[in-house]
UniProtKB/TrEMBL annotation:
The gene is odhB. It comes from Tropicimonas aquimaris. This is Dihydrolipoyllysine-residue succinyltransferase component of 2-oxoglutarate dehydrogenase complex. NCBIfam families: PRK05704.1, sucB. E2 component of the 2-oxoglutarate dehydrogenase (OGDH) complex which catalyzes the second step in the conversion of 2-oxoglutarate to succinyl-CoA and CO(2). PANTHER family: DIHYDROLIPOYLLYSINE-RESIDUE SUCCINYLTRANSFERASE COMPONENT OF 2-OXOGLUTARATE DEHYDROGENASE COMPLEX, MITOCHONDRIAL (PTHR43416:SF5), DIHYDROLIPOYLLYSINE-RESIDUE SUCCINYLTRANSFERASE COMPONENT OF 2-OXOGLUTARATE DEHYDROGENASE COMPLEX, MITOCHONDRIAL-RELATED (PTHR43416). Residues 252-270 have a biased composition (Low complexity).
Amino acid sequence: MTIEVRVPTLGESVTEATVATWFKKPGDAVAVDEMLCELETDKVTVEVPAPAAGVLGEIVAAEGETVGVDALLATLNEGEGAAAAPAAAAAPAAEAPAAAPAAGGASVDVMVPTLGESVTEATVSTWFKKVGDAVAQDEMLCELETDKVSVEVPAPASGVLTEIVAVEGSTVDATAKLAVISAGEGAAAAAPAPQAAPAAAPAPAAAPAKDVADAPSARKLMAEKGIDPAAVQGSGRDGRVMKEDVLKALANPADKPAAPAAPRAPVPAEDAAREERIKMTRLRQTIARRLKDAQNTAAILTTYNEVDMTETMALRSQYKDEFEKRHGVRLGFMSFFTKACCAALKEVPEVNAEIDGDSIVYKNFVHMGIAAGTPQGLVVPVIRDADRMSFAEIEAAIAEKGKRARDGKLSMAEMQGGTFTISNGGVYGSLMSSPILNPPQSGILGMHKIQQRPMVINGEIVARPMMYLALSYDHRIVDGKGAVTFLVKVKEALEDPRRLLMDL
């Protein structure tokens, strides 16, 4: 049976791509979901997995060709002969299962699942099973950690875990083999005696050398601009230089590698014995890099105001019980702030815009990022088209995404595309702070603790629930007047929430 391999959906408004690299050639055996080739669009790199196990037949679109959405890339021959081919031709022979499968069973490779667009590698965080354990289909075997999210790897079949190829702490690419399961009749009963601890598995190999050519569009652009390929840091598989890498090098010609951190001062032995050293997670490393990049790239400035929360708190207190009965979700303050920000962004659209080269891109929609603290670090899930949502829809979306963020279940797509961000440091007791931008966004609102403070109202000193607001913005695109106007609009909406209902 012949199966067609076609161009997948490339993303909103993206209609074509360039075939960057083929990882397989005609006649090669491939496993289901094994990467066949890589496509390159104007903005991202898209990997094309095999839709089924079989043998690659004809390659229709060669490297360097431009193809449209749903165009035919190749054909795949599926059938008895194909099924007998090795499940993962790319795996070295040394990775064969250490223990023979149980009689009547078969060896099933556990591969790295799809990690998300543009994510090419992950770190093996935790194994929940050890060699010799019986596993059920879809039972969690291990957890992988990428730059953004944690990915659980389920068992593809029932059987016995006979080999762990990628031990905890090792870095694997998107097509790597993680383990081997002996599946089939009697597999569970024929569990071999546990082998040496997983640590005895072969140590992860060093990162492979760059043996795949740079993307065709990257080579063309480097030739046109006279750029030495060795001077461009590649972000593709095996260090391959992609078009966006060349564009970044052109935009920052003076960039130099960051100087290594200064070594620590000597630590007394009695102090060193009481220290604990833990390697930074990939998520924490990414957070650190992005925050520093934001400071290096944008002209960040912060302006402050304060809001009297009396009316918003009264409205919430009056309707929260009825709201929860009607909509099945609690009424919090975040929906008020989200609504207030959406209204203010319409008045000051540059706060909802971004810089792209020498252009300003204005967004006629609001994809609201809501910063959420998790045990792994800060993540920012995005609520799309928040400006079109009701209070109940916003509260439901925030609750659902917040829970999944804490559980490490957010996908990459759910944390991309935000146009503005709200960060609530008040839940931790913060009274005042200056939030850092979430690039390429031009604005972020910082909420803080509500605290009773003496205020002069109609000539009298009264206690009022006050909150400091902070707007950090990119001064390259947002002027001081626009930033102050934005905060005043948010303040007015919260001090008289009826304005939100009347679109004022």
